Immunity protein Imm1
Amino acid sequence: MASTITASYQNKDNTVRLESAKDVSRFLAHMAEQAVLDPDNTCAWLYIDNRPVDEDGIADHEMRVGVIPNLPETAPDGNTSVKSSAWTLGFTDARGSTYVKGHDSGLPEISLFVQGHSETFPADSVVDGELVRAAILDAIATGERPTTVTWSPTH
């Protein structure tokens, strides 16, 4: 069942509908560009449309996509370089809060921001942008939590 996703980034009134691979790529590129310019906005909320909502109109789930611009990386030989952007991906629903385990950031936790408010991810949640893109496309294709990634409990 093909679906669409409403993505909210920078403020809850700034939403975009994601329906295709082109939409998702454009949205992630926009996030990566803006996060460098505005470090108080490095996380977005995504909602799969046509899913249940409660009596207050609150969705039964939330997918969080974070971008970490200029994350320092240490290579096995000890040299440090800067990755242009790294990503995080989380999902919350009735099963609990989960994230995609990836590489260790070297930080105690990853602090991202939504409109200046902190959103934290575990230290080992650094993933590639292509993985995030594929997961979002999976959610569009199925209307469900992506199954192309392995989810780990947040706590």
